[in-house]
Design brief:
By secondary structure, this protein is mostly helical. 75% of the residues lie in helices and 0% in strands. It has a domain at 57-122. The radius of gyration is 45 Å and the shape is elongated. The N and C termini lie far apart (103 Å). The relative contact order is 0.03.
């Protein structure tokens, strides 16, 4: 028996002659059995109804579009701010009051480092 390394080193002609020299015994009636099996498989495949895989695809697409449109229609309503003032002048006055409070707090915060530096210099 030859080793795998010896077989790998053989030339194509040597491999072909070795394959032809091996005598294999084919069982009687093998060809008829293969033909019968292939014919039975072909008949079985032809008799099966073709699956309707994409029969539901238009309905799924329609449902997806409807869901997308409903979400798009709801987004502006969810993010829209509520109007809490009926009088625009009152709303503007409230905004000015909030900005004044922010400005006062920022001024106090800006003065803190100056006060700390002055205390350090006084010591």
């Amino acid at each position: 028996m030859k080793k795998i390394e010896d077989i790998e080193k053989m030339e194509l002609e040597e491999l072909e002659s070795a394959a032809l020299s091996v005598e294999t015994e084919v069982p009687s009636g093998l060809e008829d059995r293969i033909k019968a099996a292939l014919a039975a498989k072909t008949i079985a495949e032809e008799s099966k109804p073709k699956p309707a895989r994409l029969r539901w695809a238009p309905y799924a697409a329609l449902a997806l579009v409807a869901a997308g449109l409903s979400v798009v229609a709801l987004i502006p309503r969810m993010n829209a701010p509520k109007d809490t003032y009926d009088d625009p002048y009152l709303a503007y006055a409230q905004v000015e009051a909030v900005f004044k409070t922010i400005s006062d707090k920022m001024s106090v915060a800006a003065d803190k480092p100056v006060q700390i530096i002055n205390k350090i210099n006084d010591k």
